[in-house]
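Run log, item B.
One chain of 265 residues. Sequence copied directly from the ordering sheet:
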Amino acid sequence: MNITFLGTGTSHGIPVIGCDCNICCSRDRRNQRWRSSLWIEGSHGESVVIDTGPEFRLQAVRAGIRRLDAVLITHSHADHVHGLDDIRPLSIETPTPVFGNPWTIEELKQRFAYIFQDTQCGGGKPRIEMHPVSAPFNIGGLEIIPIPAKHGELDIYGWKLVEAGKSVVYLTDTNRIPTESELLIGTPDIFIIDALREKKHPTHFSFDEALEESIKTGSKLVYFTHICHNHTHKEIKTYCKHALKRKNVSGICVEPAFDGFSLKI
């Protein structure tokens, strides 16, 4: 299984429009963060994307995505779904299944009503099959497990993907993981978690909160995502290193992810 971070930024994206801060003006490409999304490739060619934000077309072209077996949606906020129409070239031969919790799927049907109308409405549209889910399912050799979580008061999904005993968990836009979901998370080989900034936020984990949740899983490899423009990539790496030392925690690697970063498990 191969995973690629298509985007690691918060809802504004980075650079932020009209901002002249040192992160938005940075020449370090790791500080340029498109809206958060993940691409998973299975060992038998399965191709699954988590979230299709406003830059999805650019992300897909940059990553070289040529086919798509499924889209997993965490929730219906604009920065996670407003590129859904851009799966159109990937759904010409076969309709693309889109999975999410029931209320997310219903909202997408309203938000993108033209996709499900009989008329063309003056233009093309992707071929999509909507699937509200609450239990594990399979895409080829990938087992996919929805993980209920909270984004403020909003019910969202994180996603766990398992292949041949190896697993990755992706939890973005959350500030609370219910106890029952901790059992679903288990001890993944890779744990990817929302970590907006150092300062606390009402609907996102802070760096320290994300660290605490990561340590609880026992995962040895952790990556932060959905990062705002308050901190450079290097600053976050340093923060994680010092925080783990302060907590007297060893044997775990915690780092910020960055756009285009890819790894195999």
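Observations after the first pass:
- The mean pLDDT is 96.
- The longest strand covers residues 142-151.
Flagged for discussion on Thursday.
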